[in-house]
């Protein structure tokens, strides 16, 4: 379901507000994205909202931050964080390179909460904040995920059909004969995706420009398997997004009611419509 400009503006505004609230808590308690991203954890998810805003609400057709794979991962993790808002610490991890010079029981800097585990009130507040963030995030970016999926699965299917025709033309050659694959590809291949894949294989040496027909078939079938694997990955990611989205919707009725009470009717109405649309189209089935 695609949001209109007013709905997009309202949802992005509310997401930005919840993002700032979560960011403040995660900064205070040192909750980071991971060992390689030292920003507060919420920044990783909000990167997708920034990318969506930068695209003018159009989403993407490529393998970037708004790809269906990354968005599927996003809402799967957002759903998980609602249940486990405070990440577990690796007690065996040594962050200092020289622990032998560290002193125990030094006085803490004011408001320094490093190493202190947040109490239940912080945990519950983060869980509620992420619950609100998740339902709006999934509603806002649902159309972007669908658009990316549709564009890329159509390209992938066309590439697979093109490869099947290419393979069939090689099978028609005399067994054991030498084939000029480069010329044949330029004459027969229609999709730019497959052409680029073959050119890359020629340049890397994985596929010789002139090959014996049986060798060529063997190498090209390996490329065909790679295309099929990517196709299945896109399909699986779209299903993961759909099932996670529906689960988030089903557990967020209270969030929708709170939005209405606080005057965010436009957001609540859109999310309600998105829920009905998800059920009607069989998401999660």
Overview of the structural elements:
It is a single chain. The chain has 285 residues and is mostly helical. It has a domain of 155 residues. The protein is built from nine helices and four strands; from the N terminus they run αββαααβααβααα. It has a two-stranded antiparallel sheet. A two-stranded antiparallel ribbon has the order 3-4. Helix 8 packs antiparallel against helix 9. The longest helix has 52 residues. The two termini are 18 Å apart.
Short description:
With 285 residues, the protein is mainly α. Helices cover 67% and strands 5% of the residues.
List the helices and strands and how they pair.
Elements: H1 5-29, E1 32-34, E2 37-40, H2 41-54, H3 68-83, H4 120-171, E3 178-180, H5 181-188, H6 192-204, E4 210-212, H7 213-250, H8 253-261, H9 265-280
Antiparallel strand pairs: 1-2, 3-4
Helix pairs in contact: 1-2, 1-4, 3-4, 3-7, 4-7, 7-9, 8-9
Note the main sheet: 2 strands, antiparallel
Spatial order of strands in the largest sheet: 1-2
Task: Kindly report how far apart the N and C termini lie.
Answer: 18 Å
Proportion in β-strands: under 5%
Number of strands: 4
Q: Outline the low-pLDDT stretches.
A: 91-109
